[in-house]
Amino acid sequence: xxxxxxxxxxxxxxxxxxxxxxxxxxxxxxxxxxxxxxxxxxxxxxxxxxxxxxxxxxxxxxxxxxxxxxxxxxxxxxxxxxxxxxxxxxxxxxxxxxxxxxxxxxxxxxxxxxxxxxxxxxxxxxxxx
Length: 129
Ligand SMILES: [Cu+2]
Description:
mainly beta
């Protein structure tokens, strides 16, 4: 029995590592379910690929929105505030963009989803290493 427990723990650890490969954010925004994945975990200084999946209230992928990413770092001693924007491009059912984080530290990220003249924003923070 003990051996089985150890094996189970090892398997769970492996599954955990595999799962933690991407930096993931899942949020409900208005009527949408938004899933955001960043290919670096933790996000890095430099290029990070970001993928966004949006599902409507019925669970269907939404592919007719305009998606833009805005990321910023507030001013700090010796550094003015930094603000960047990137338009995401639809590939299949995922919106993809590149986010270039120019320095390490905490960044505010806002994913802006515009559809039918209405914009819904999903906000989260990343700590770039
Ligand atoms: Cu800074």
